[in-house]
Amino acid sequence: MHWLYALKLLRAFPRLPHISPSPWGLLWRVLRKQATHVLRINGEHLLERQISPPNLYGFLRLREAGIPLAALQPPAKDQLLWELAPGRTFLTRLTVGMDLMTLYEVFGRKDYG
What we know:
The chain is α+β, with helices and mostly antiparallel strands. It has one domain. The protein is 37% helix and 20% strand. The protein contains 4 helices and 4 strands; from the N terminus they run ααββαββα. The strands form 2 sheets. Strands 1-2 form a two-stranded antiparallel sheet. Strands 3-4 form a two-stranded antiparallel ribbon. β3 (79-85) and β4 (88-93) form a beta hairpin. The two termini are 25 Å apart.
């Protein structure tokens, strides 16, 4: 599974600087099955999170779709908080399941089926 998502991320390499300060390092960590990554949150703000490869790809897709993260993030290293509307947030798990891909399908692609 890591190889598949490493290839997907490699195909999206020109867009990886939007989510990571080190795109090559990100790909290397995915290939080595490391779960902790430094993510670019808003502009130059960086946050270290434990995230599975499917959710890492989902994070990229959500950021491309313009779905914003909440200003305050939970202290847990395996969670992110998204602001779906003013005052409406959604907490996602990053190490289990595919929360970010599901969120992308509903709010990014608007695929409700």
